[in-house]
């Protein structure tokens, strides 16, 4: 049964007058975690676009990268029989919710709009369940990026690092000059975001796949994984003492405000730099985690439509999200790249153009892998098990050998 946004009627002097709600096609209630300045700016592009189509917006923000908090709120809403219209969601979570048979079928919009032909297969793998489109992908992000303050790097005589040793050397130079080398927020999902890149640079693409996607116990317990944890400890030596609990966008602000040299973070960080009026290559640099050039750990934000009965607004929203002009306008602001293969890169800045080229190249060379930290390598239970070990180790709760052991058993228990 349809629960939302019925055209309300007011009896007045024997007539039925349509209320204000009637002039609007319908509202969508949208659950999301886009609460930083850059994210809110991107969200406004979507809100405004829907506004022009007569679709109103009821905002339901739940902060927290990776969407863990948002998913907890969603569970409560669905359990109480009152799901939101549309929910920002990542990878395996989409599949898990689809399996519960509480999501809408978008096949008629998808067919009319030709989504099968333009959405990359890597994204369709998550957007479709049992042959049905259940979500509309709005972007492709990736996690193996570093965002650096160009002025500070120049000042301390550090060049853009190409490999791990050069990264460490740059961080040492920043430290010696009295800057915070690495801006970081100590939250499990942020630690895990760094971990994505460290696994990739340490073991390469095949190792990443074996360990993070196949969850192969041999890879998880290997000497390479031990080295990954050692490198996490090494990076821990470059963050400031106030890092625990800090939000990721406040870490970005430290780089923006010339306090810190770099941040290892997904390309949503670019949204903060742009919002602050900074320019790529002039004020900040974007480069792949040294040693991961040519490889991409991706995650794609998709809007899953929940089953709220026949809904014109849902169809409108799904259609609007996938429109090529919208995909360009939105992703230019968000820091991500389009979720369809036929969008021009003309309006994107240098980092966005690099993101698009990297994605196409990685897709072609089979070096495109799902981000563990952001729900595209393994289901939530495994992701959360990895979060626990990585964050415990990063905070000094165990040494690298203990962490390697704990990772194997935590993942086994979660499968
Ligand atoms: C999402 C991004 C978001 C980031 C930080 C990621 O999981 O994919 O869209 O900007 O979290 O909130």
How would you sum up this structure in a few lines?
With 415 residues, the chain is an alpha/beta fold. 49% of the residues lie in helices and 16% in strands. The protein has 18 helices and 16 strands.
Task: Describe the model.
- Helix 1 crosses helix 13 and helix 11 crosses helix 18.
- The chain has a five-stranded mixed beta sheet, sandwiched between helices.
- The protein folds into two domains: about 170 residues, D-Maltodextrin-Binding Protein, domain 2; about 210 residues, 3-Layer(aba) Sandwich (D-Maltodextrin-Binding Protein, domain 2).
- About 50% of the residues lie in helices and about 15% in strands.
- It starts with 8 loop residues before the first strand and ends with a helix.
- With about 425 residues, it is α/β, with parallel strands linked by helices.
- The structure holds beta-D-glucopyranose (BGC).
- The site of beta-D-glucopyranose (BGC) has 11 residues, from loops.
Please state the overall shape, judged from the principal axes of the Cα atoms: globular
> Which superfamily, in CATH terms, is the homologous superfamily of the largest domain?
Periplasmic binding protein-like II
Beta-strand fraction estimate? 15-25%
Secondary structure: helix percent: 40-55%
Total domains: 2
What do the pLDDT scores average to?
94
The strands making up the biggest β-sheet line up spatially as: 4-3-5-15-8
- The total of beta strands comes to 16
Radius of gyration: 22 Å
Estimated structural class: alpha/beta
Q: Provide the list of bound ligands, each named once.
A: beta-D-glucopyranose
- Using the coordinates above, name the CATH class of the largest domain: Alpha Beta
Count of helical regions: 18
Q: Which CATH-level-2 architecture of the largest domain?
A: 3-Layer(aba) Sandwich
